[in-house]
Amino acid sequence: MTDFTRALRRLALILPAVLLAPQPLLAQEPAPPTPQHLTPAGGTPWIYEGSDVPRDEEWIFGELPNGLRYAVRSNAVPPDQVSVRVRIDAGSLHEDASELGYAHLLEHLLFRESKYLGPAEAIPTWQRLGATFGSDTNAETSPTHTVFKLDLPNVDAGKLAESMKLLSGMVRSPVLSDANVQAEVPIVLAEKRERGGPAERAGNASREVLFAGQRLATRSPIGTEATLGAATGASVSAFYRRWYRPENTVVVAAGDIDPQQLAAEIEAWFGDWEGEGALVPAPDFGDPVAPAGADPANPVGEIGVVVEPDLPRSFTYAVMRPWRPVQDTVAYNEGLLRDALAQALINRRLESRARAGGSYLYAQVSQDDVSRSADMTFVNFAPLTGDWKSALDDIRGVIADALATPPSQEEIDRELAEFEIVFTSQVEQRRVLPGPRLADDIVNAVDIREAVAAPETVLMVFNSMRETITPERVLEHTRALFAGDVIRAAYVTPEAGEASEAAIRAALGETIAADAEARIAAQAIAFDDLPAVGEPGEVVAQAPIGVLDIEQVEFANGVKAILWANDAEPGRVAVKVRFGTGYRAFAPDEAVYANLGYAALIGSGIGDLGQEELDVLATGRKFGFDFQTGDGAFSFYAQTREQDLEEQLYLFAAKLAMPGWDPNPVIRAKAAGKLAYESYGANPNGVLQRDLEYLLRDQDPRFQTPTPAMFDAATPAGFREVWEPLLGQGPVEVLLFGEFDKAATIEALRKTFGALDQRETAPAEVLERAIDFPDAGETVIRRHRGDANQAAAVIAWPSGAGVDGLRESRRLEVLVSLFNNRLMEAMREHAGASYSPVVRSDWPSDVDSGGRIAALAQLRPEDVPVFFAEAERIAQELASTPVGEDEYNRVVEPLRQYVSRASTGNLFWLYQLEGATVDPRSIADLRFLLADYTQTDPGVLQALAQKYFGSRAGWRLAVLPEGQELATASGPASAGEGR
C-alpha cells in the first residue's frame, strides 16, 4: 500500500470523516471462487511467449479454455479504484467494404443496450456506481482494435462483481436490433460530422496516398455515410459474430483489490463465453510496394498534393517497409533504443535549424509501426512559405549528413543523458503509476504484438547496452531507418498550382549534399558558472497554514512560498510560480504581445543564454518550463525531482531577474501565428477557438486573437518593451508540492526567489480592470468556410468570480453537471443533433469578474435553434423544479469519487491553494470542499439556477456556414457579424 493512505488520514483533519468512508451502493456479494486458469508457476505467460524480456512479476496472467486471455495486478493509485479494459482484436481494418464504420458503431451499440442493461441505461448505471461518463467510462476504436474502458472508484467485492457482470453483458450479449441501430447511427453520424472538414479531408487524402494498395488507405474508423446509413441489426450482428469472440479478447484489470479476486471475476463472467461458428482469421492488411520501375536506390512511389485553402502547409514523406510480427527480445529492444537515439540526434539538429530562422517552422523525424500495416520512418515539416522545395532540401540535407557521417561521441552522450533521466524517473515513480495507465500499457502491448517490461527492466537494458552505443552503430541504425521498399509523400497546401506530383517526385529523387552546419557543437555550460540571482534573502516568517503539513514561508523581499514536503509521490516535485497581474497588465492595444508571450517568452532565454544553451544545461536533468497567462497572474510550472529542484528554481527566478531577449523565438512565433490564423475559419470549432473568449469577454481587445496584420506589426523590440516590465511585477508566489527536503528547499528559495529585488505592486488602475460579460440580445453570428452541414452554438450566462464565492463555485459545478447530463441526453437523442454537447462553469478566483456558465455544441445548422431551445428549457426547469433523488445521486456520486481520488495527489492541493498567499481566505474554505460538492441540497441547487438562469436570458452565439442564415425568432444577425 502506498503512502496515499497517510494523505487520506491527514485529509480527515479538514474534511468530515464520514464523507471519506466508503459508500457502497450494492450489497456485499459472496467471495467468488479461486481462479483456475492462471499461468502456472514457472510457466511462460502468454504475453511473453517467444520473448526473453524479464517478466514483470507484478502482473498475473491467465488464459481460459475458450481462448480469452487476461492480465491482472494490484495497484493502489488512485486508492480504492479498479481499472478494467476489454480489448477486442477487431477494428476498422477488419471491415468488409460494405461494413465501413461498423467496428466503431458497435462500440456505441454496446453502450446502448445489452443483456443486463436496458435501453440507455449504461451511462446512468455507471454514474450510480460513481464513474464519470467520458473519463471513467469510455471506449475507443482504432484500425486494429476496439477497447472498452472502465475506471471504477470506491471499489469493493460487490461493485467489482456487478461491474464485471455488466461489462460481460455488454461485450458478450449486446442487443443489436434494427431499432437500436437506427437510434445510434445518427449519433455516430453526428460524431462524423463534428470531425469533418478540411483537416479530415486532408488526412483522408494523405492516408490514401501513404497507404496506397493497403486496407488502411480506405478504412477510417468513423466509416462512411453510405455504409452507416445502410446498417441494420442483421448486418451489424454479422460483423459482431465474426470478430467478438473469446479468442479475440483480452481483459485487463489493475486496481486496489486482491488480484486473485480480479482474476476470479474475469473467469466467472467470461469463462463460459463461446464464439459462434468457426474462428475467422484476420484479413491481410497488405504491404507497401514500390511501383514497377522504381529506382531501388531511391524508390519514390505515390505522391499526393492536397489543396485545402483553409489549412496551413504541411509536408510528409515516409520511407516504408512491410510490418511483420517481431520476437520481442532484449536484443530487439536494444535495437529500438538505438533507433530512438538516431532519431533524437536528427531532431535536435532540425530544431536547432528552425530556431535560428530556417525555411521551415518545424521538422521532425519519427519511426512508427502503423496499424500493423507498415514499418515507417516519417519526415514531417511545415514550410514557412510556398517554397516547399527549399524547406525539403534543407531538411534532406540535415538527414543526408546524418546518413553520411557518424555523430560525435559528445552528441551521443547528450542524448543518452536525456534517455537516462527518463528511464530513471520511471523507476523512481513506479509505485505511483496510476492503474489506468498500467492497464492501457498491456492493451497497447497486445495491439503491437509485443511484451511488457517493468521500468527496472528498461533501465537495466539501457545501462547494459550504453557502452555498445558507438558513433558507427548509430550511423548503421540511421541508415536502416532511411532504407525501405518505397518512399511516398503527401503535401497539404492552401495554394493550387504551388506544387505538382511530378515536381515533388523529382525533388525526392534528387541527390542532396550533406549539410553539416546543423550539427550542434559541444558546449561546456554548468550552473556553477552562471551569475547569482542576487544576495540570498532572509526568511521573515514561517508557519503552518493549518492544512495537512503545509507551510507558508515569507522572505524579506515580499516573496511568499507554500511548501508541502511529502513522500506520497516519490521522485516528483511540482513547482508553480505565480507573479504579476496576468491579463490585467495588458493595455488594449497589446493583444498581439499577450498572444506571443505563450510561444516566445520562454524561448527568448535567460541573460546571455539562448534556448540552445538552456537545453545544454537541462541535459541529464528533469526540468520543465511551462508558461501561462491567467486572468489575475502569470505563471511558470514544472514537474521536476528533488535532485534538480534547486536548478529548476534558479531557472524560474533568473527568468524574472535577468530575462533574455533573443529575437528569433518572437519571429518564429509570429510566423506560426500567421500560418494558423486562416485555418481558424475552416470549421466551426476553429471559429470558436478564434473568437469565443473575445466575445464572451464583451469584445475586450486584450483577448482578441491577433490577425496576420497584427502579427506583421509586432516586433521583437516591441515584445521586449511590453514583457520586460511585466516580468518585474509583483507579487510573487512559489508553490512546491512533492518529495523534497524542506530545509534544503527553503535554502534554495533563499538563493533564488528570496534574492530577487523587491517588486512593486501594479497600480490600482491595473488591478481594477474588470472583465465584462456581453449583453444578451440578438444572436451573434459568425461564419465559417467549411462544410455546409457543420455549425456550432453557444449559450452563456454570467456568474461570479473571486475568493468570496469559492463555496458557491463548487455548488455551481454540481448544478452544471446536472445541466450537462440533461443537455447531452436531449441533443444526442434528438436524431443525433449533436454528439458531444458540453456545459461548463468558469469561476476565476484571482479576479473579481469574468465568471460564466456556458453550454456549447457542434451540430447541423438546422439544429442550432433546437440547441438554444433545449438549453433554455433545461435552465428554466432547473430553476423551477428541484432535481430528483436518483438524478442528484448520479451527479454527486461521481463528484464524490473524483474528489476522493484527486485529493490523494499533490496537484489537487496545489491547485486548491494557488493564490492563497495573496488572499488566504481560500484556505479556510478548504474544510467545506467535499461537502460543497456532495452535500449541497437540491433546494440550494434550484436557488442557484434561479439566481443565474432565472433572471436573464442567455447570451447566444451561432457559427454558421457562409451563405446560410439562422432560422430562429431571435432576428437577423447582430452587428457583431463577421469572420
Strand content: 15-25%
* Shape verdict: globular
Unreliable spans are 1-29, 969-979
- Give the beta-strand count: 25
Q: Describe the sheet with the most strands.
A: 7 strands, mixed
Protein name: Insulinase family protein
Organism: Qipengyuania citrea
GO molecular function: metal ion binding; metallopeptidase activity
Enzyme class: hydrolase
List the topology elements:
Elements: H1 4-11, H2 17-20, E1 60-63, E2 69-74, E3 82-88, H3 102-112, H4 122-128, E4 137-141, E5 146-152, H5 157-172, H6 178-195, H7 198-210, H8 225-229, H9 233-243, E6 249-255, H10 259-270, E7 300-307, E8 314-322, H11 330-355, E9 360-370, E10 374-383, H12 388-404, H13 409-428, H14 435-447, H15 455-465, H16 471-481, E11 486-493, H17 501-509, E12 539-544, E13 551-555, E14 560-565, E15 573-579, H18 591-600, H19 611-618, E16 626-629, E17 634-640, H20 645-657, H21 663-677, H22 684-696, H23 708-713, H24 716-727, E18 729-730, E19 732-738, H25 742-751, E20 760-761, H26 764-767, E21 780-784, E22 791-798, H27 806-829, E23 838-842, E24 852-859, H28 864-880, H29 885-902, H30 906-913, H31 921-925, H32 929-934, H33 938-948, E25 955-961
Written account of the structure:
The chain has 979 residues and is α+β, with helices and mostly antiparallel strands. It folds into 4 domains: 31-270, Cytochrome Bc1 Complex, Chain A, domain 1, CATH 3.30.830.10; 300-518, 2-Layer Sandwich (Cytochrome Bc1 Complex, Chain A, domain 1), CATH 3.30.830; 532-588 and 598-671 and 727-767, 2-Layer Sandwich (Cytochrome Bc1 Complex, Chain A, domain 1); 780-961, Cytochrome Bc1 Complex, Chain A, domain 1, CATH 3.30.830. Helices cover 40% and strands 16% of the residues. The chain has a 7-stranded mixed sheet, with helices on both faces. A 6-stranded mixed sheet has the order 1-2-6-3-5-4, sandwiched between helices. Strands 7-11-8-10-9 form a 5-stranded mixed sheet, with helices on both faces. Helix 13 packs antiparallel against helix 15, helix 20 (645-657) runs parallel beside helix 25 (742-751) and helix 28 (864-880) packs across helix 33 (938-948). The longest helix is centred in the middle third of the chain and has 26 residues, at 330-355. The two termini are 56 Å apart.
